[in-house]
Amino acid sequence: AYWPQRLLLNRADVVATISDTTRALMQQHRLTRRPVRLVGNAPQPGAVARDPAQAPDKTLLYMGSFMPYKNVETVIRGMKHLPGYTLHLLSRITPERRRELEALVPAGTSVVFSNGVTDGEYEQLLRTATALVTLSRAEGYGLPMIEAMAAGTPVVASDIPIFREVSGGAALLVDPDSQGAFADAVLAL
Predict the structure, then answer these.
(1) CA 75 – CA 176 distance, rounded (Å)
(2) Alpha-carbon distance 157 to 171, whole Å?
(3) Are 23 and 17 in contact (CB under 8 A)?
(4) Pairing mode, strands 110-113 and 131-134
(5) pLDDT of 44-84, one tens digit each?
(6) Strand 59-62 vs strand 131-134: parallel, antiparallel, or unpaired?
(7) N-to-C CA span, the chain
């Protein structure tokens, strides 16, 4: 039901969102009669970019929750097409969800569950990884994508409207349900 959002948004002094994609969804669902302003989101200044002369490690990073719409399952299953690569799942994860995802790891592949990393660890991994990967089926913005691009780290992401908008053509976008397309994009890097 959208009536609670409509009630609150129509009483607001200002309605703002972080992307044109979200603004369009708000308009599509008629969440407010008020104009919706766009306020961009970006990583904090001070991130150190990667050294372009240094070859990246054969590592892939995932930063985000493990909710079903994030589609981490396809990334994990796609690792069978990427021998020699290691997938780092950086975010905190419940023991139950970890067991579910561990059961999907293809034999002979390397998947590391970090259960959270510090900002410094994340920045270091971004500087050395082959790519940040996300095959989410829905997003509000995609801050990890922006953080990776700010560090000079390539991004392989699902071809959905918000990622098209946020990446501005700088990411390799793939079908979020295709393990093969995901792997091909990583190998293309």
Answers:
(1) 9
(2) 7
(3) yes
(4) unpaired
(5) 555 567 777 788 899 999 999 999 999 999 999 999 999 99
(6) parallel
(7) 43
If DSSP codes are grouped into helix, strand and coil, which group holds residue 133? strand
Cross-strand bridge partners of residue 37: 16
> Alpha-carbon distance 115 to 98, whole Å?
9
String of b and e for 82-113 (b: at least 16 CB within 10 Å)? beebbbbbbbebeeebeeebeeebeeebbbeb
Would you say 123 and 132 are in contact if contact means Cβ atoms under 8 Å apart?
no
Please give the mean pLDDT across all residues of the chain. 91
Helix (H, G, I), strand (E, B) or coil at 138: coil
Amino acid at site 53: A
CB of 114 closer than 8 Å to CB of 88: yes
